[in-house]
Design brief:
There is one protein chain. Helix content is 62%, strand content 0%. The protein has seven helices and no strands. The two termini are 38 Å apart.
Protein backbone atom coordinates (compact mmCIF):
# COMPACT_ATOMS: atom_id res chain seq x y z
CA UNK A 1 0.00 0.00 0.00
CA UNK A 2 1.54 3.27 -1.06
CA UNK A 3 1.40 5.77 1.74
CA UNK A 4 1.16 9.51 1.36
CA UNK A 5 1.61 12.19 3.96
CA UNK A 6 -1.12 14.79 4.54
CA UNK A 7 1.44 17.57 4.09
CA UNK A 8 3.78 16.27 1.40
CA UNK A 9 3.07 13.50 -1.08
CA UNK A 10 5.83 10.93 -1.15
CA UNK A 11 6.76 7.83 -3.07
CA UNK A 12 6.19 4.52 -1.35
CA UNK A 13 8.11 1.30 -1.82
CA UNK A 14 6.34 0.60 -5.12
CA UNK A 15 8.43 0.02 -8.21
CA UNK A 16 5.50 0.54 -10.56
CA UNK A 17 3.09 3.39 -11.05
CA UNK A 18 0.10 1.61 -9.58
CA UNK A 19 -2.25 2.91 -6.95
CA UNK A 20 -1.03 0.58 -4.22
CA UNK A 21 2.60 0.10 -3.36
CA UNK A 22 4.31 -3.20 -4.20
CA UNK A 23 1.52 -4.20 -6.57
CA UNK A 24 2.38 -5.42 -10.05
CA UNK A 25 0.47 -7.27 -12.74
CA UNK A 26 0.11 -11.04 -12.21
CA UNK A 27 2.35 -13.25 -14.28
CA UNK A 28 0.70 -14.24 -17.55
CA UNK A 29 -0.41 -17.85 -17.72
CA UNK A 30 0.12 -18.63 -14.08
CA UNK A 31 -0.34 -17.56 -10.47
CA UNK A 32 1.54 -14.63 -9.02
CA UNK A 33 5.03 -15.25 -7.72
CA UNK A 34 6.18 -13.82 -4.42
CA UNK A 35 2.68 -12.87 -3.35
CA UNK A 36 2.52 -10.52 -0.37
CA UNK A 37 0.29 -12.05 2.32
CA UNK A 38 -0.62 -8.58 3.53
CA UNK A 39 -1.47 -6.99 0.19
CA UNK A 40 -5.01 -5.89 -0.57
CA UNK A 41 -4.79 -7.56 -3.98
CA UNK A 42 -4.27 -11.32 -3.42
CA UNK A 43 -2.63 -11.56 -6.84
CA UNK A 44 -0.16 -8.72 -6.33
CA UNK A 45 3.40 -9.77 -7.11
CA UNK A 46 6.56 -8.99 -5.25
CA UNK A 47 8.75 -6.63 -7.29
CA UNK A 48 11.75 -7.63 -5.18
CA UNK A 49 11.40 -11.39 -5.75
CA UNK A 50 14.36 -12.84 -7.63
CA UNK A 51 13.91 -14.74 -10.87
CA UNK A 52 10.13 -14.42 -10.95
CA UNK A 53 8.53 -16.96 -13.23
CA UNK A 54 11.67 -19.12 -13.50
CA UNK A 55 11.00 -22.78 -14.39
CA UNK A 56 10.80 -25.27 -11.55
CA UNK A 57 14.24 -26.64 -10.76
CA UNK A 58 16.11 -23.57 -12.00
CA UNK A 59 18.93 -22.67 -9.57
CA UNK A 60 17.97 -19.64 -7.54
CA UNK A 61 20.28 -16.75 -6.72
CA UNK A 62 21.49 -16.54 -3.12
CA UNK A 63 18.98 -14.72 -0.91
CA UNK A 64 19.56 -11.02 -0.53
CA UNK A 65 20.79 -10.34 2.99
CA UNK A 66 20.56 -6.55 2.61
CA UNK A 67 16.82 -6.41 3.13
CA UNK A 68 14.82 -4.04 5.26
CA UNK A 69 13.92 -5.11 8.79
CA UNK A 70 11.86 -3.57 11.57
CA UNK A 71 15.11 -2.80 13.40
CA UNK A 72 16.31 -0.83 10.38
CA UNK A 73 13.12 1.22 10.37
CA UNK A 74 13.32 1.86 14.12
CA UNK A 75 16.97 2.93 13.86
CA UNK A 76 16.46 5.29 10.91
CA UNK A 77 13.30 6.73 12.41
CA UNK A 78 15.15 7.34 15.68
CA UNK A 79 17.92 9.15 13.80
CA UNK A 80 15.46 11.30 11.85
CA UNK A 81 13.24 12.18 14.80
CA UNK A 82 16.32 12.69 16.96
CA UNK A 83 17.56 15.28 14.46
CA UNK A 84 14.21 17.06 14.58
CA UNK A 85 14.22 17.13 18.38
CA UNK A 86 17.87 18.22 18.63
CA UNK A 87 17.53 21.15 16.23
CA UNK A 88 14.20 22.12 17.80
CA UNK A 89 15.80 22.33 21.25
CA UNK A 90 18.80 24.26 19.88
CA UNK A 91 16.59 26.75 18.05
CA UNK A 92 14.44 27.19 21.19
CA UNK A 93 17.59 28.06 23.16
CA UNK A 94 19.56 29.99 20.55
CA UNK A 95 16.74 31.89 18.79
CA UNK A 96 15.03 34.00 21.48
CA UNK A 97 11.48 35.19 20.90
CA UNK A 98 11.51 38.25 23.15
CA UNK A 99 10.25 41.53 21.73
CA UNK A 100 13.72 42.56 20.54
CA UNK A 101 14.49 39.33 18.64
CA UNK A 102 11.16 37.78 17.68
CA UNK A 103 11.25 39.26 14.18
CA UNK A 104 14.64 37.73 13.42
CA UNK A 105 13.68 34.39 14.91
CA UNK A 106 10.44 34.32 12.93
CA UNK A 107 12.35 35.09 9.75
CA UNK A 108 14.77 32.23 10.37
CA UNK A 109 11.89 29.88 11.16
CA UNK A 110 10.02 30.75 7.96
CA UNK A 111 13.20 30.33 5.92
CA UNK A 112 13.86 26.96 7.59
CA UNK A 113 10.39 25.59 6.89
CA UNK A 114 10.61 26.68 3.24
CA UNK A 115 13.94 24.87 2.89
CA UNK A 116 12.44 21.82 4.63
CA UNK A 117 9.53 21.87 2.17
CA UNK A 118 11.86 22.01 -0.84
CA UNK A 119 14.03 19.18 0.50
CA UNK A 120 10.98 17.02 1.22
CA UNK A 121 9.65 17.57 -2.30
CA UNK A 122 13.02 16.66 -3.83
CA UNK A 123 13.08 13.44 -1.81
CA UNK A 124 9.47 12.69 -2.72
CA UNK A 125 10.32 12.63 -6.42
CA UNK A 126 13.63 10.78 -6.16
CA UNK A 127 13.66 7.11 -7.13
CA UNK A 128 15.88 6.23 -4.18
CA UNK A 129 15.99 7.59 -0.64
CA UNK A 130 18.78 9.98 0.23
CA UNK A 131 19.77 9.91 3.92
CA UNK A 132 21.45 13.31 3.54
CA UNK A 133 18.26 14.87 2.17
CA UNK A 134 16.08 13.26 4.80
CA UNK A 135 18.29 14.28 7.72
CA UNK A 136 18.66 17.80 6.28
CA UNK A 137 14.88 18.04 6.05
CA UNK A 138 14.64 16.92 9.68
CA UNK A 139 17.16 19.54 10.78
CA UNK A 140 15.39 22.46 9.10
CA UNK A 141 11.98 21.22 10.23
CA UNK A 142 13.31 21.10 13.78
CA UNK A 143 14.41 24.76 13.58
CA UNK A 144 10.89 25.77 12.54
CA UNK A 145 9.23 23.66 15.24
CA UNK A 146 11.56 24.99 17.92
CA UNK A 147 10.79 28.64 17.18
CA UNK A 148 7.04 28.12 16.77
CA UNK A 149 6.87 26.07 19.97
CA UNK A 150 8.79 28.74 21.84
CA UNK A 151 6.45 31.47 20.60
CA UNK A 152 3.35 29.48 21.58
CA UNK A 153 4.77 28.64 24.99
CA UNK A 154 5.85 32.24 25.66
CA UNK A 155 2.93 34.29 24.36
CA UNK A 156 -0.09 32.00 23.94
CA UNK A 157 -0.26 29.01 26.26
CA UNK A 158 2.59 28.22 28.68
CA UNK A 159 3.01 24.48 29.17
CA UNK A 160 1.09 23.57 26.00
CA UNK A 161 4.21 22.25 24.25
CA UNK A 162 4.57 19.39 26.75
CA UNK A 163 0.90 18.58 26.30
CA UNK A 164 1.33 18.51 22.51
CA UNK A 165 4.37 16.24 22.75
CA UNK A 166 2.59 13.85 25.11
CA UNK A 167 -0.50 13.89 22.93
CA UNK A 168 1.56 13.06 19.83
CA UNK A 169 3.22 10.16 21.63
CA UNK A 170 -0.16 8.91 22.82
CA UNK A 171 -1.60 8.95 19.28
CA UNK A 172 1.44 7.11 17.94
CA UNK A 173 1.26 4.43 20.64
CA UNK A 174 -2.50 4.07 20.32
CA UNK A 175 -2.47 3.67 16.54
CA UNK A 176 0.45 1.24 16.69
CA UNK A 177 -1.35 -0.89 19.27
CA UNK A 178 -4.62 -0.81 17.32
CA UNK A 179 -2.79 -1.71 14.11
CA UNK A 180 -0.93 -4.62 15.70
CA UNK A 181 -4.20 -5.90 17.17
CA UNK A 182 -5.77 -5.64 13.67
CA UNK A 183 -8.44 -3.26 14.93
CA UNK A 184 -7.34 -1.03 12.04
CA UNK A 185 -7.20 -2.71 8.65
CA UNK A 186 -5.61 -0.74 5.84
CA UNK A 187 -7.43 -1.59 2.63
CA UNK A 188 -7.73 0.11 -0.73
CA UNK A 189 -11.03 1.64 0.40
CA UNK A 190 -9.41 2.93 3.60
CA UNK A 191 -6.60 4.45 1.54
CA UNK A 192 -9.03 6.18 -0.83
CA UNK A 193 -11.14 7.56 2.02
CA UNK A 194 -8.13 8.95 3.89
CA UNK A 195 -6.67 10.57 0.78
CA UNK A 196 -9.99 12.18 -0.16
CA UNK A 197 -10.51 13.46 3.39
CA UNK A 198 -6.96 14.80 3.59
CA UNK A 199 -7.31 16.59 0.26
CA UNK A 200 -10.51 18.27 1.41
CA UNK A 201 -8.95 19.21 4.75
CA UNK A 202 -5.87 20.77 3.14
CA UNK A 203 -7.96 22.72 0.62
CA UNK A 204 -10.08 24.15 3.44
CA UNK A 205 -6.98 25.13 5.39
CA UNK A 206 -5.47 26.84 2.33
CA UNK A 207 -8.72 28.73 1.75
CA UNK A 208 -8.79 29.77 5.41
CA UNK A 209 -5.20 31.00 5.18
CA UNK A 210 -5.90 33.01 2.01
CA UNK A 211 -8.97 34.63 3.55
CA UNK A 212 -6.92 35.43 6.64
CA UNK A 213 -4.07 37.00 4.63
CA UNK A 214 -6.21 39.07 2.29
CA UNK A 215 -9.29 39.62 4.43
CA UNK A 216 -7.72 39.91 7.86
CA UNK A 217 -8.93 38.40 11.10
CA UNK A 218 -9.32 34.65 11.45
CA UNK A 219 -10.23 34.05 7.83
CA UNK A 220 -13.06 31.52 7.67
CA UNK A 221 -12.64 30.70 11.36
CA UNK A 222 -11.43 27.13 10.82
CA UNK A 223 -8.41 27.56 13.08
CA UNK A 224 -9.90 29.29 16.09
CA UNK A 225 -12.85 28.99 18.45
CA UNK A 226 -15.29 26.11 18.19
CA UNK A 227 -14.55 25.42 14.53
CA UNK A 228 -10.85 25.47 15.34
CA UNK A 229 -11.34 22.75 17.96
CA UNK A 230 -13.38 20.67 15.51
CA UNK A 231 -10.83 20.97 12.71
CA UNK A 232 -7.99 20.35 15.15
CA UNK A 233 -9.59 17.04 16.15
CA UNK A 234 -10.17 16.18 12.48
CA UNK A 235 -6.54 16.98 11.70
CA UNK A 236 -5.33 14.68 14.48
CA UNK A 237 -7.63 11.87 13.30
CA UNK A 238 -6.28 12.27 9.77
CA UNK A 239 -2.75 12.12 11.13
CA UNK A 240 -3.63 8.91 12.96
CA UNK A 241 -4.99 7.44 9.72
CA UNK A 242 -1.77 8.32 7.93
CA UNK A 243 0.17 6.61 10.70
CA UNK A 244 -1.79 3.46 9.90
CA UNK A 245 -0.83 3.85 6.23
CA UNK A 246 2.80 4.29 7.28
CA UNK A 247 2.68 1.11 9.38
CA UNK A 248 1.18 -0.74 6.44
CA UNK A 249 3.98 0.55 4.22
CA UNK A 250 6.59 -0.72 6.68
CA UNK A 251 4.84 -4.07 7.09
CA UNK A 252 4.66 -4.58 3.33
CA UNK A 253 8.29 -3.56 2.88
CA UNK A 254 9.49 -6.10 5.43
CA UNK A 255 7.20 -8.81 4.04
CA UNK A 256 8.46 -8.24 0.51
CA UNK A 257 12.12 -8.01 1.45
CA UNK A 258 12.55 -4.43 0.27
CA UNK A 259 16.16 -3.19 0.13
CA UNK A 260 17.54 -1.94 3.43
CA UNK A 261 17.90 1.60 2.07
CA UNK A 262 14.10 1.78 1.82
CA UNK A 263 13.96 2.00 5.61
CA UNK A 264 14.96 5.65 5.15
CA UNK A 265 11.71 6.21 3.27
CA UNK A 266 9.78 4.71 6.15
CA UNK A 267 11.60 7.01 8.59
CA UNK A 268 10.90 9.99 6.33
CA UNK A 269 7.20 9.19 6.14
CA UNK A 270 6.78 8.58 9.85
CA UNK A 271 8.57 11.85 10.64
CA UNK A 272 6.34 13.83 8.29
CA UNK A 273 3.23 12.32 9.85
CA UNK A 274 4.37 12.88 13.44
CA UNK A 275 5.23 16.52 12.67
CA UNK A 276 1.71 16.93 11.25
CA UNK A 277 0.15 15.45 14.40
CA UNK A 278 2.32 17.57 16.70
CA UNK A 279 1.34 20.80 14.92
CA UNK A 280 -2.34 19.89 15.12
CA UNK A 281 -1.96 19.03 18.81
CA UNK A 282 -0.20 22.34 19.44
CA UNK A 283 -2.99 24.24 17.73
CA UNK A 284 -5.75 22.30 19.51
CA UNK A 285 -4.31 22.67 23.00
CA UNK A 286 -3.64 26.36 22.38
CA UNK A 287 -7.30 26.90 21.53
CA UNK A 288 -8.45 24.83 24.51
CA UNK A 289 -6.30 27.00 26.77
CA UNK A 290 -8.71 29.85 26.01
CA UNK A 291 -6.01 32.14 24.66
CA UNK A 292 -6.23 31.47 20.92
Amino acid sequence: MRSSNPVFSRRGFSRDNGHAGFNAAPQAGGPAVGTNPYATNPYATNPYAQQQGAPVGTPQAPPNTGVMTIDDVVTRTGMTLGTVVLTAVLSWVLLPVDQANIGTSYGIAIGAVLVAFVLSMIQSFKRKPSPALILSYAAFEGVFLGVISSVVSTYIAPGVVIQAVMGTMAVFAGVLFAYKMRWIRVTRRFYGFVMAAAMGFVLLMVANMLFSVFGGGDGLGFRSGGLGILFGVIGIILGACFLALDFKQVEDGVAYGAPREESWLAAFGLTLTLVWIYMEMLRLFSILSGND
